[in-house]
Amino acid sequence: MNDVKTHYDELLGSVYSWILGDFDQAYAKNSALLDELDVRPVSTGIAIDLGAGPGCQSLPLADRGYKVIAVDFCAELLGELQSHAADRNVRTVCGDICDFRRHAERADLVVCMGDTLVHLPDRTCVAALLDDIAATLVPGGAAIITIRDYVSPGPTGAKRFIPIRSTADRIFTCFLEYGEDVVNVHDILQRRTAEGWTLEVSGYRKLRLDLDWVAGRLAASGLTVERRFESGGMLGLLLRR
Ligand SMILES: C[S@@+](CC[C@H](N)C(=O)[O-])C[C@H]1O[C@@H](n2cnc3c(N)ncnc32)[C@H](O)[C@@H]1O
Question: What domains are defined for the chain?
Answer without folding.
Answer: 4-149+209-240 (3.40.50.150), 157-206 (2.20.25)
